[in-house]
Amino acid sequence: MLIHWPMQDDLGTYRALEEAYRAGKLLRSIGVSNFNRAQLGEIMANFQTVPVVDQIETSVLRQQTKLHQYLADHQIVHEAWSPLGEGAGRLFNHPILKDLAAKYDHTTAQVMLRYLT
Length: 117
Description:
Distance between the termini: 23 Å
Shape: elongated
């Protein structure tokens, strides 16, 4: 279960999730979405259960390399939302991506996802 967006009472929300998780109430894991380093640090400083995942906007033009390294250092999975740039035409028509797609006989989307993987 994810906290979708940082709000006013992240600690209270995370506390409720951690209590449900520890009580075995149908939660396999706890994660967050759209949290930055400071917000993750606050969660980790106040709770025993580290978020399993942080789902953040990530694409070939927004790679989140610094946050990615922070997540890796804390064994938190970096999950991309909008890896195709929300279908923005500029990515699908980017000359370099189109050339790579043609070269490898794949779609532009496949090239982008493979690069991010």
